[in-house]
Amino acid sequence: MSNIKPSNELSFLQAGSLIRRGGLVAFPTETVYGLGVNASNDKAVASLFKAKQRPEFNPLVLHLVDAKSAERLAFVDEKTKMLIRRFWPGSLTIVLKRKPEAPISELVSAGLDTIALRVPSSPIAHALLRSAACPVAATSANSSGMISPTIAAHVEESFGNKIDMILDGGKCTVGVESTILDMSEEQPVLLRSGVVPLEDIEAIIGRVERKDTKESIRHYAPKLSIRLNAASAKKGEALLGFGDAPDADMNLSRNKDVTEAAANLFAMIRELDKGDFTGIAVMPIPEEGLGVAINDRLAKTLIQKKQDNSKK
Ligand code: TXA
Ligand code: MG
């Protein structure tokens, strides 16, 4: 049986409730279909990465009902406010510094201290976000490596019944992804070209630097050094456990569940990083399911630290 539902009041209610309770719901936006989850729920966010079968953690975009919600979650400066007044609701995603108290899973930002926000203009997306009544993190609703879906049937091809509901809103009116602009530093940077032309943005805030997302993402790196595949901690080190590990300072998943480990990864590393340790020893994590993405991210953390150190 297909889990594509026509959009109406009843399906909005069901979809909103599914998201609040940690489910995965695909919904149309004016750009492309998104696969959304409750952004405050670590496990739900991990299950989104699992469904997407992405071999790495790319940060997700938060989809909000209005600009007011943005100010509760991120630091919004004057230039950004001008962009918001001009382009929201609409197809501009803005990356900002997240507020420390924002009740958003660390996994949404892949451990970064920034967060990508957008208020979509699609009335169906809006109805769903209203009904969910929580910040919704979403990514384009395609499996990793496939192009972004613009009709419900594309979403079904990628995910079938692996997700809880596909809200059908017909064909996306725009059909191209949003423009992504990084406003988290002094100099605005274009991370992805999209629907909103750069000239329109520059007409409002002046010169924007152009960069490609892939080269510009600075991977999250803790202050402490990380040691992978550790059987135990050396003197002074914190032990981040996986599986049975009575000596661990924190445990990613006692049940050896890689999805649970992904849900805990960034929050636990951040917590240990605050402690009085000389480094963080991480027990081996199997290369299966989200374990691949966890190991990839830990390896990138090491590379980022080496780059940071060589700059010092
Ligand atoms: O039109 C769109 O933006 C669609 C619809 C569903 O809203 N969404 C979309 O999501 O295209 P996704 O996950 O396929 O692409 C979002 C991009 C990713 O390349 C990610 O790296 C980047 O946004 N991104 C998210 N958070 C970021 C952050 N904090 N810093 C830099 N880049 C970020
Ligand atoms: Mg995508």
Chain-wise SSE layout:
Elements: E1 4-6, H1 9-20, E2 25-28, E3 33-38, H2 42-52, E4 61-63, H3 67-73, H4 78-87, E5 92-97, E6 114-118, H5 123-132, E7 136-140, H6 152-159, E8 165-168, E9 179-182, E10 189-192, H7 198-205, E11 209-210, H8 213-216, E12 225-227, E13 238-241, E14 250-251, H9 258-274, E15 279-282, H10 291-311
Parallel strand pairs: 1-8, 2-8, 4-6, 5-9, 10-11, 12-15, 13-14, 13-15
Antiparallel strand pairs: 2-3, 3-7, 4-7, 5-6, 9-10
Helix pairs in contact: 1-5, 2-9
Magnesium ion binds next to strand 7.
Task: Describe this entry's structure for a reader.
The protein has helices spanning 9-20, 42-52, 67-73, 78-87, 123-132, 152-159, 198-205, 213-216, 258-274, 291-311, and strands at 4-6, 25-28, 33-38, 61-63, 92-97, 114-118, 136-140, 165-168, 179-182, 189-192, 209-210, 225-227, 238-241, 250-251, 279-282. With 312 residues, it is of the alpha/beta class. The chain has 2 domains: 4-216, DHBP synthase; 225-310, Rossmann fold, CATH 3.40.50.11030. The strands form 2 sheets. It has an 11-stranded mixed sheet, sandwiched between helices. Helix 1 (9-20) packs across helix 5 (123-132) and helix 2 (42-52) crosses helix 9. The structure holds threonylcarbamoyladenylate and magnesium ion (MG). Threonylcarbamoyladenylate binds at residues 29, 31-32, 34, 58-61, 93, 95, 109, 112, 114-116, 138-140, 177-178, 180, 191, 213, 217.
